[in-house]
Structure formats: structure tokens, C-alpha cells
Amino acid sequence: xxxxxxxxxxxxxxxxxxxxxxxxxxxxxxxxxxxxxxxxxxxxxxxxxxxxxxxxxxxxxxxxxxxxxxxxxxxxxxxxxxxxxxxxxxxxxxxxxxxxxxxxxxxxxxxxxxxxxx
Length: 118
Known about the structure:
The protein is mainly alpha-helical. It has eight helices and no strands. The chain is globular, with a radius of gyration of 16 Å.
């Protein structure tokens, strides 16, 4: 119960900070107010899941986040995904997981695009 209360208080502080940001500050960060609010409400493990899945496709974290718009889209897609149990099972395999096993992932096409050599 205490952990839930702490989580709610942190989320409230995050929302308060976002509310105080100017449109210019948000633009400098590269997100809209709506995206910032969505990020604040998102489960904290979403970016880590995307990064772990990207490693399966051979994509480094810094490469993954180069395109800010694509990164934001992947966050939103992952946050709305209904395949969390399958995702967790695959990610538990770590280095033994393969891209072929990620057919359930709604971000798979994005990973495939980024994994292609330029």
C-alpha cells in the first residue's frame, strides 16, 4: 500500500512539473504536452522492454533513440500492447532470444526497419 501511495505522489509531481513547462520548453525536449503527459502516466518498465527487445534485433539503445518521433511512437505502441506475457517470456531468454520469436510484437516492423543496414 505504501509503494502505491509513493507511486501516486511521484506521478502527481511529474504531472505538476509538466503543467508548468512552457510550449517552448516542451518543443526543446521534443515532445508535445500530450506526449509528456502520456509518458508520465506510462508504466516505468516500457522503455526498458523496448530497449531489451531492440537488443534481440541487434539494435543498440543509442541507435534506437536517434529518431525521436519513431522512439515516441514505439513507446506508445508498447504501452498499449496486449502481448505482455509473451514479451516477458521472450525477454527472459536474454541472449538466446531471436527476432523470429518476436512475431507477436507490435513494434516488430519498427525493429526490422532499424535493424536493416543503411
